[in-house]
Structure formats: C-alpha cells, structure tokens
Amino acid sequence: MIKQPSDWYQASIETVTNLEATLSANEVKKYRLKWLETVLYQMDNFGQNCEDCSMFRHALTACLKTLGNKPVAKADEESYFNTLNGVVIHLQSKHKLTPPGENIGIWLALGLALGAGLGFVLSNMATGIAIGLVTGLVIGAILDIAARKQGRGI
Q1: What's the whole-number mean pLDDT along residues 113-119?
Q2: pLDDT class for 109, splitting at 50, 70, 90?
Q3: Torsion over CA: 56, 17, 45, 6 (sign)
Q4: Cα separation of 54 and 69, whole Å?
Q5: Which regions of the chain does DSSP assign to beta strands (E)?
Q6: How large a percentage of the chain has pLDDT more than 70?
Q7: Is 136 within 8 Å of 108 (Cβ atoms)?
Q8: Considering the chain, what is the average pLDDT of its residues?
C-alpha cells in the first residue's frame, strides 16, 4: 500500500518550491533546498509515529517561513541550519538513515588504509593505494545505492 503524503508535507514542498522561485541560485544551493525535499519526505514517513519527528516538523515549518523574508536575518539563517542539522542527526541516529556519500567516505578511508598495507606488502605503495582507493570507492558507492533503493537515504 502506497502511503499518501500528509498535508504538512504538501504544504512544506509548496513552500520550498516558492522559495526556489524567489531565491537566487546561490541561495537555493546555500540552503540546500533540493536536498531538503528528501529530508521532508523522510520526516513525513516517520513523523506519524515519532514524537521527535513531530517536534522537528514544527521547527522546520517555522524556519522555512523565515527564509522567505528579505533579507534573511543572520539569527534566522543560523536557526534554519541548526534545525536542519538536528533533523539529519535525528534521522541518522533514531531511524538509521544515511546521508548521501556517507558510505563512500567511510569505505574510501578504509580502502586507503588497506591499500597502504597492500602497497607495503607488494613493495609498491602507489599500486597498493590505487587498488585500495578504487576498491573503497566501489564498495561505498554500492552501499550508498543500496541504501537509497531500500529507502534508507536522506
């Protein structure tokens, strides 16, 4: 059964669409409005059963309204980013969701470490690091794609 989006989600997406139309391209990028749509979707999925998600939904609604004010006050901007970071941390810790590129970063670091060890064993550090880099990148990308397909991506 496909879940219908809530009224809150539809109103929030409408607000984001209006902001995208009124803000400059740099501001849209700065406020990460494209990514915010995914965060709002995940908040809508978990918001019915989670008290923290409900609290964050109200805070995000208030922050989105302040972004429409010209010029945006520094305190409003800071509040928006703090709220967005709080939402993402909540989704990661409580609902086990992953932001884009998280697995790539983790596996890239592991691949480099293992590649350096392999390079030491092979007596060719450049080859070992290259193998580790590519391996970590591939594994991380596969895990990111799998998380997105399973609906665990933010």
Answers
A1: 91
A2: very high
A3: positive
A4: 24
A5: none
A6: 97
A7: yes
A8: 86
End-to-end Cα spacing for the chain? 22
Which pLDDT score is estimated for 139?
94
| CB half-sphere exposure, 100, CA atoms < 13 A | 6
SS3 content of the chain, % helix, strand, coil (to 5): 80, 0, 20
Torsion of CA 112, 93, 36, 147, to 10 degrees: 60
Q: Answer whether 0.85 is exceeded by the pTM.
A: no
Is residue 139 within 8 Å of residue 107, measured between CB atoms?
yes
- Paired with 153 in beta bridges are 98
Q: What is the token pair recorded at 103?
A: 């697995």
DSSP state for residue 23 in the 8-state scheme: S
| Paired tokens of 82 | 């703090």
Mapped onto helix, strand or coil, the DSSP state of residue 150 is: coil
pLDDT tens digits, one per residue of 86-105: 988 888 888 888 887 888 98
Which residues, 6 or more positions from 66, have their beta carbon under 8 angstroms from its beta carbon?
A: 72, 73, 76, 79, 80
CA dihedral 60, 63, 68, 73 (to 10 degrees): -160
